[in-house]
Amino acid sequence: MTIIAVFSDDFILQSIWQNAIVRHLNNILPELNIIYGYEDWPATPLQFDNELKEFVGNQKDVAELVENADVVITHVAPIHRKTIDQAKNLKIIGCCRGGPVNVNINAATDRGIPVVYTPGRNAQAVVEFTLGLILSECKSISRAHTALSRGVWRGDLYRYDKAPHELQGRTIGLIGFGTIARMLVPYLKPFEMKILSYDPYVSEDIFKSYGVISTDFYDLLKNSDIVSMHARVTKETLGMMGNKEFNTMKQGAFFINTARGALVDYDALYQVLKSGHLAGAGIDTFGIEPPPLNWPLLDLENVTLTPHIGGSSRETAHRSANMIAREVSNFFKGEPLQFCINPQVLEKK
Q1: Which of 24, 80, 182, 260 is catalytic?
Q2: Same structural domain, 210 and 266
Q3: Paired residues of 283 in beta bridges
Q4: Around 308, how many Cα atoms within 13 Å sit in the side-chain half-sphere?
């Protein structure tokens, strides 16, 4: 009997997990016992501790459910070292995240347990959302809606001094040129935009293959009408957009962040938005989520703020579950794992 402990929530539902596991594992593991836990996400904000990031759930409750499990599958439930150490039968962990930050990878590696994850699972959703956020902010759609919902007719938005530029012929700068930025390019080209990008880890040939101009970081800031963040959070990129960088941007430019809040000094962003140096910003990710009610950016008119929903789509939920179930199936069939964060454990087996 193989025991699979699965933690569902209100995004990746238990029924979605059930369908994915049956589809990929029923013929591989005929004697299958699936036990479910539930975490109240997204209603409960993501938490952090000194071991894990971006999780929802209680360590003791999680450990109790997975104690006899052969397989643990999580989306936002925390998998601490103590949990891994107590799960004596554990053979593989699946985490439905682009980066499994809510799993103690070192603890799993110490036990020789592979951790599979789901890079790119929500890329299409983020691409579409980014384009929507660009249009909403640059065309004053959210401002007009907010005013009209309060009974204010913003006819003044048709004045020349408040009228937006068209995207056609404008320059957009993509900071980071990974999966999402590359997928965004075809959606920008119908607008006939000039596309710049800064990513020191991408070759010139790749930029050219997408019809994108590779440029220096500060040259991108100086020359872009819209700057959109697509970098991962690393020691190099942490707080990479600060006072100097925002003031380097063109007067009247727009700033878009659907990547991670830790990339940005939001106090510095507030200052350039309040002063009018930047025309506006579209923000989906924050340094603290949710931001405090007295957060200064909430008082500005020239921002469009959304509660970190860029990666949300029904397709993402199904894609995530199927990616993990497929990797677990491959593991038990002895086939290569496509998305393993600690592949060194496989070399020892």
Answers
A1: 260
A2: yes
A3: 257, 305
A4: 16
Domain boundary among 289, 305, 321: 305
Annotated catalytic residue, options 166, 236, 289, 335 = 289
Asked if 196 and 226 sit in the same domain, the reply is yes
Domain residues for 182? 123-305
Q: Take residue 20 and report the two structure tokens written for it.
A: 């994915």
Q: State pLDDT tens for residues 133-154.
A: 999 999 999 999 999 999 999 9
The continuous run of DSSP H or E covering 86 comes out as helix 81-86
- Count of CB atoms situated within 10 Å of the CB of 315: 11
- Which amino acid, one-letter code, is at 51? E
Domain shared by 106 and 45, yes or no: yes
Residue 270: Cβ within 10 Å count = 18
Query: What is this structure's pTM?
Result: 0.93
pLDDT digits (tens, 9 = 90+) for 4-49: 999 999 999 999 999 999 999 988 888 899 999 999 999 999 999 9
Asked about 289 being catalytic, the answer comes back as yes
d(CA 328, CA 56): 23
Structure tokens at 82: 């103590």
- Give CA separation, 68 vs 1, 86, 144, 175, 260, in Å: 11, 9, 55, 45, 36
Residues 36 and 60 in one domain: yes
- The question of whether 23 is a catalytic residue gets the answer no
Residue 58 belongs to domain with CATH number: 3.40.50.720
List the catalytic residue out of 308, 319, 326, 327.
308
Three-state DSSP state, 330: helix
Compute the distance between CA of residue 260 and CA of residue 194 in angstroms, rounded to an integer.
Answer: 24
Cβ neighbors of 168 (< 8 A, separation 6 or more) are: 191, 192, 193
CA distances from 172 to 49, 232, 278 (A): 37, 19, 14
327 has catalytic annotation: no
| Structural domains in the chain (count) | 2
